[in-house]
Amino acid sequence: MLNLLLKEIAEKDGLYVESSASLRSLVELMDKNQKGVVVVLDNMRPLGILTERDIVEIVYDGADLNDEVEKYAKKTLVTTRGDRTIGYALNLALENNIRRVIVIDERDNFLGIVTLQDLLKYIEEDFYRLTIKVKHIIKRSSHLISVAREDSIKHALEKIVNNKISAVIVLENGRASGIVTEKDILRIISNKISLDNNVCNHMSGPVDTATVDSPLAEVVEVMNYKQIRRVVVVDSEGLPIDIVTIRDVIENLEGDYNRFLERKLQSAKEVLNLLPEMLIEVTDTGKEQLIVWANDKVINQFSEDIIDNPITKLIPIEQWDKVYTSLTKLNKVEHFKIKIGEKIFELSGFFIKTFFGIEKGRFHIIMRDITEDIKLSTIDPLTNIYNRRFVNGFMIKEIERSKRLDSNFSIVIADIDDFKHINDTYGHVSGDIILKSISCLITDAFRSLDVVGRYGGDEFMIILPDAKHAIASGTIERLRQKIESMEFTVVKNRKVRVTGSFGIATFPEDGTSLDDLLVKADERLYKAKGLGKNKVA
Fold first, then answer.
1. pTM (2 decimals)?
2. Cα(76)–Cα(305) distance, rounded to whole angstroms?
3. CATH number of 6-121
4. Which class would CATH give 134-264?
5. Is 357's pLDDT higher than 90?
6. What letter would DSSP give residue 200?
7. Exposed end of the chain (fewer CB within 10 Å): N or C?
8. CA-CA distance, 126 to 299, in Å (whole number)?
9. Domain segments of the chain as ranges
10. How far is CA 247 from CA 70, 89, 94, 230, in A?
């Protein structure tokens, strides 16, 4: 049953309104559909969602029920495709701590909703193979919230909202005589009943109960048969001690108490949101790898749209293929660098095989933004072009490439003429302005495959792949003329003109090593200076 497709079970009728509908009409529809949820659509695409809990809080805050629903449909949507399975939806709901999943088609059009209660209908048979009992899953971590029969509905509403719970037990002589749920509150609001009425007149009852030793399978059977979302747990004397909800039950679908404890570790993800790294969890279905969870750092960087989408929507496919190969063959990947947009990330992670029918395993991925680290190690901070270290490294690679392909390339060392005079006359701030302006001018003058860097002080290095000496000479002569014709504005709006001298060396005729090419280009730069500056040698 876990492989059943969501589009085969998703319900749509009576579960949506347009964004222009009133809040009151939505409340009436929710009371009628008995699903505890309504999706807000804009041209058949999900815009937002409102649940019973949302309505309870909205009414508690004194909202106007004549307002348009779009004003309140602000909750982050978790959607999934209709060709996903029940098992996948179950994981998605648990991972994202939600009670229902919105199902869409490939064009993002609304197909319907699948709630945890819907899923429970299809997985009930799995519980009959389990020996887990109610005592294994009850929390007993907080005081049981209750009201008395004579209390007002408003008082019950206040306890539900302030304690962030879905129901309160109604006590009479210490025993549960009824229960007030979010659904009851919704019905009361829909029927325009005063919140000052007594709880006993509008509570749900009698209460369905279970003992701590009741098999969980029996609780599931009762919930499905009576279409209820919770059962009150009583002790040996019949006194209420806790409430078991559908979510509590589904969290324990996969087995024994130890497995349950493992699942409880999901709460550790709240702690993971505090970490500086980006954390992503990906399920491998065999056919595709889908993001099922990401911490706040990832959501803030890339938006919540990445959830329930292939990892390749985030990481370029050619890079993901390499990561995937390492993860599946070695069960881990370490310090793998990837580029997403203009940013560079270092990625590490590991792979855990699972034996649950709907997936092959889970990838846990850690990403760290190293853009600034890379920039600091390769970019000159003043001019924002490459630094000497990067340029030398690139030149070494270009020598090896040109040897392998039997091709040419040229390098150029450029120097601003009389730059010391500019600093002495106008100040070092003006000198910095000139350096930055010249850097922009040079960068704009060349191809995207050419490399421009600051080689030190007022010297620049230009590498021109696949450029013979004649081509390089012509290109640099045009650059020299452009610099000569420019007028630069420095401090106090003063206008300054500068010139440059250039020395060119070409591989392989001027050298086949880094040192040979640098020496030859440097010699020619000084030759240009000796010829009166503002020259290309």
1. 0.52
2. 10
3. 3.10.580.10
4. alpha beta
5. no
6. G
7. N
8. 34
9. 6-121, 134-264, 273-374, 381-530
10. 28, 13, 8, 9
